Prior knowledge:
By secondary structure, the chain is an all-alpha fold. It has one domain. The radius of gyration is 12 Å and the shape is globular.
Amino acid sequence: MFEGDDVHKWLYKYNQYFDLEEIVETNKLKLTSYYLNEMALYWHQNFMRSREGQLVSWNEYVEIMCSRFRGGA
Length: 73
């Protein structure tokens, strides 16, 4: 679970999970909210609402998330 601390550690583990479970690109964002808590979940909900249904790639999401939680990707 990610709550807003050490985004790079969480992303490393999350990407390992994607590889292990062979998660396709289009499902990565759909799974993300299940693994977020506290401030990270609040940020995710607001970010997704702000996109107003526009598609977001996983790489774009990671870049913006890293920017919000401790620097660049």
